[in-house]
Amino acid sequence: MSRPAPSVILELLKPITWFAPVWAFGCGVISAGGAVAESWLLVVAGLMLAGPLVCGTSQAVNDWFDRHVDAINEPNRPIPSGRMPGRWGLIIAIGWTALSLFVAGLMGRFVLAAAAFGLFLAWIYSAPPLRLKKNGWWGNAAVAICYEGLPWFTGAAIMSAALPDHRILLLAFVYSIGAHGIMTLNDFKSEEGDRRMGLLSLPVQLGTMRAARLACAVMIVPQLIVIAALLAWDRPLHAGAIAVLLGVQGVLMLRLLSDPKRWAAWYNATGTTLYVLGMAVAAFALRRILTEGAA
Predict the structure, then answer these.
(1) Could you tell me the CA-to-CA distances from 248 to 6, 8, 85, 254, 255 in Å, in that order?
(2) What is the pLDDT of residue 18?
(3) Which helix (H) or strand (E) holds 43?
(4) Which domain holds residue 50?
(5) Based on C-alpha coordinates, what's the Rg of the chain?
(6) pLDDT digits (tens, 9 = 90+) for 71-103
(7) Apex CA 208: angle with CA 205 and CA 212, to 5°?
(8) Alpha carbon of 127 to those of 124, 177, 288: distances in Å?
(9) Which residues contact 167 (CB under 8 A, 6 or more apart)?
(10) Is residue 190 situated within a structural domain?
(11) Inside any domain, residue 54
């Protein structure tokens, strides 16, 4: 069996998708406080774990089990195009899973637990018999947790060398909920193929407009919770900054809702950017809270 070229393997692992978990990991590192410079090797290892390893694994697993859908929606991807021959997609998915667990195990039990849970979600998201992606409610939840909550937890756990503070856990969880809406918008691009293959994404289940409205609500409400939490924790400036970012998102959502299929990708490049900037603001707020509490 011929081997795929290194460039094809890298394409399978989709570096562009690593941004979200790497960003969330960075938020976790920031939120936990502590001297990043003194732990830079662990931070670099954690970035590799969140992006190229765990996220890369999820992409390989998804492409292998989605190869028939991709033949309709995106036939130029490595597996349906034939550039990833034979069962190499599956081999890489299994190998990358093992490597991810090995690296996570070197970084402590909390990191290993988070990585193992994330990898478990990655496999049941795409692989039968569960194949969570068959239903947009469950599938989008799994992806949102893997892309936002678990990397944030991992970054904080590395810096804390312990279970992170409950406020960190709260915001990581809340931002994961909001990411469910982002995943729904991402489903618009494959609605036709999902419908033909029997995948019940939310655009397929609810229709275009209802799915778009739901996605907007799911992104808005968690940010309102974050704003309320920061106000309760006496961080009005950080809360105000997130409120401004949320207000601009609201304006952008008006265009999104005017034609969701046309503007979903545009919103994911604009409104979602403001969403993740808010995550960073919240992370710096938590850092100040924890640093001042330890003083």
Answers:
(1) 41, 39, 46, 10, 12
(2) 96
(3) helix 40-48
(4) 6-294
(5) 19
(6) 887 899 999 999 999 999 999 999 999 999 999
(7) 100
(8) 5, 23, 42
(9) 229, 233, 286, 289, 290
(10) yes
(11) yes
- Is 1 among the domain residues? no
CB 190 within 8 A of CB 202: no
Domain count, the chain: 1
For residues 243 and 274, the answer to whether their CB atoms sit within 8 Å is no
Residue 29 CB neighbour total at 10 angstroms: 26
Confidence (pLDDT) at 189: 82
| Residue 135 β-bridge partners | 200
Q: Give 61's contacts (C-beta < 8 A, 6+ positions apart).
A: 93, 97, 122, 123, 125, 126, 127
Show the low-confidence residues of the chain (pLDDT under 70): 1, 294-295
Name the pTM for this structure.
Answer: 0.94
pLDDT at residue 198, rounded to an integer:
81
As to burial, measured by CB atoms within 10 angstroms (0-12 exposed, 13-18 middle, 19+ buried), residue 37 is exposed
The answer to whether the CB of 41 falls within 8 A of the CB of 49 is no
Phi, psi of 82 (to 5 degrees): 90, -5
